[in-house]
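Hi U.,

Before I forget, here's the chain from the pilot set. I'm dumping it here mostly so it's searchable later in email.
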Amino acid sequence: MLDTPRESDFDEIAEAAAELCDAPIGVVNLIGDGRQFFKAEVGLGVRETPLDSSFCRQALLQEDFLYVQDASRDPRFEGNPLVTGGPCLRFYAGALLKTAEGHPIGTVCVLDTKPHDLTDRQRKGLLRLARQTMAQMELRRSLREHAEQRLLHERILDSATDYAIIATDPEGNVTRWNAGAENVLGWSEAEILGRPVSVFFTPEDRAVGRPETERVLALEHGSAPDERWHLRRDGSRFWASGKTMPLRSNDEQVVGFLKILRDRTGQREDNAALEASELRYRSLVEVSPQVVWFGDAEGNVTYCNAYWYDYTGLPAGQIGEASWLGAIHPDHREPTRRAWLVAAASGQPYEVEFPLRGGDGQYRWFLSRARPMRSADGTVRSWIGTSLDIHERKVAEERFQTLTELSPTVIWFGNPDGSLSYLNDRWYAYTGQTPEQSLPMGWTAVIHPDDQAGLMRVWEEARGREVLFDTEARLRRADGAYRWFLIRAEPMRNGAGAVAGWLGSNSDIHDRRRTEDDLRKAREQLRLAVEATGTGVFDYDLIGDVLNWDFRTRSFFGLGPDATVNLDVYLSRLHPDDRDRCNAAVTAAIDPDGDGAYDVTYRTVAPEDGVERWVYAKGQTLFEDGRPVRLIGTARDVTESRLAEQVLRETEERYRLAARATNDAIWDWNLGTDHILWNEAVQTLFGYAPEAVGPSGSWWKEHIHPDDVERVKSSIYAVIEGEGSGWMDEYRFLRANGTYAAILDRGYVIRDANGKAVRMIGAMLDMSERKRAEEEQRLLTGELQHRVKNTLALVQAIASQSLRGGTDVDEMREAFASRLISLGRAHDILTASSWTEAPISEVVEGALAVHREAQAQRIRASGPNVRLAAKPALSLALALHELATNASKYGALSNQMGSVDLRWHVVHEGDTPRFCLTWSEHGGPPILAQPTRRGFGSRLIERSFAAEVGGEVRLTYASTGLVCRLEASLAAMQEQRDSNAA
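Structure:
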């Protein structure tokens, strides 16, 4: 009301206030926009004063009323220009103007230039005047809002062209017809006024008195909604939703009716399509092989599909934060929660990986993603997300690093600029390069000169287009020979989709390339063979009635290549039982209203020899101006396949009969009567006699394991009582012999027209064997991990011993490589016996094979057949390899005369048999002095045998040659050590 003109009602209030308090000045003032406005004033002569110096500013700080007897003595007004200067105000009394919500907006106040006392009657009077002022202001606001609302209603009514708004008299005759009614129904207002509303009702609704019924219902209930077919002026029908309401006068007399209609034909069709789409979507969500979940705009999870409850074992419908967060591994709960809250607050996509606990207590890795669903204005209204089981992928990633090193191919990582950042050991073993020579661009030096330009061009093009790099080139081996390699690399992208690098491999295809010429020749021979045994061709000129067959098609009918062919010949050589069917196929193919397809299988019979053949013919009719002109196609002799089909049918029948005996337990549950029909498999699967199988759902529930029954009942009734259709659960089911079978049960709910579940059909699959197999697989995986761990520990020890204290890189690399080769041979021997044990003779032969190839007679080995455990076998193989290598370099095998005696035996003394092995060198260069330091080999022998097996190693440097004695308890050589010790 700021800046509005003076009004007598408010002026009278200001006058009454001044008169009540016997004051010369009375004011109705309002505060807003940082200023003070006088709606009414007496004795002041202005409409506005500064707010900073006003008495009203202090009044707003009070609860209801401010009374100042003498402002010159009140510290709140010390230095106030209205007090110290003109008009020298002294007295003030003001009642606050407050809105219904309690917000102060001004005062009704009186002022005087001399002090005043204020009686209780005057104080109460000012409060009443303040309430009257607020009542006047509320009245004006209501009148203004009412006027605006009435104008708005009139404009809405005029602009509602999509709504038919119709007013009638009490008998149902039209009295008002808006533009929307003309738009929807087709009649103009001039055409329809005075006519009954039944004119746009369908004949069947008029026949049952529907217009009259709506008016009665509107009188009884205040309104009568309807949704039905109506008629337009042109006689066409449309589906409309509407409502009929009575119009009453102020004395509640019915003066007519108001009917509102809206054309909902398109929406009805859209709703039907939407319902079908939602049903399909919900079905897909419920059977999805991953977790699907929804969240609201604030980040609260509102729904999880059945997969979530099946996997976690949580009760259906339990979706609170504590529930889903509790299933995440403790180490990942808080990071996952933070990531979700950040995404929900920012509206950005959410993606995180975490281990999720299953119903069995085991954790599996899941990738959870979510995207916000936005309204038209861009605000987030909900979230939809999925959680995908990526456990195998995560395990594969962890294995990838190991596999990279163990891969028989060259594995490499490339940078976006074309340089390489990694090459596995296969590259260095093949090319002889070192990492310093190969990286980042030295790898190009081993490419054949004739192939280098082409390879680099393809590599640059692949990087430029960010596509697969795929080429073949010759790479130089360490001995200078070139071999062909298939070189491929895939681009690796970061989260933003940009290429961050390349993962590549080089596979030796040299042998394949040498056979490619042979392969091309074989393909050519295959093409000729296919042509030699190809299908026949037929061409029927429908205009000239001329039938042409090639020689193969003639042979199918028992005709020679030059035999005359026409329609009579074709019909005469068809099997009598197939003529009508073939004729019908031709008739359908040449029908202009059809698709022109000719597809039929028939038998031919040659009168000359009576041979019956099966022929499959497929063709297409060509039409011109709607008239068939030509039927052309192919024919194949399918006699053998038809005979095979007969055999297959017989086989399938046998299989059906066999499957009937071993089929899953099929059940059909009437939910209304709790009656279940079982097939015979429930007896064969679980061992029950027919009379022992109960025909009710109670019997089934009673046989579920006590620890599973409540969970299963909750999951199945959640589907039955909800809106879903598919159910699946795993549980234990009691067999007749008292044991439990592991069961995977699936079911499908059948609902009536109202959505009520009436039947459920499903099948029980016995997974007991699969469960046992999974447990065995778990044990095997643990064993494999143990063995790989031991092998890597041994490789680490070899590397440490080979490299410790060395100065010559080539010598250290050669020593390390030869020791790994020896370790590999020992692995081969152990692999042949499943890594349990190996004969000592095979271990010795494997360790000394390289040295005995050229000097077989110079190494003599003998001893009893002792079987060694895996780790002692590896340690012994490495020790023998070191002894033989040192002998070849410095000892008995370094000349043409020396020899080695290798003897082992078992000493039975006391309670603990001992294994003893002696390596004796003879005829080599004489040892003139004892060595001053221990070399790589000596330390490795002590590490591999003494430390790993717990044995004793004694090296004697006699003048005639080295003597090495290895001794350990027989039990240590034959027993597997604890994995923790490894």
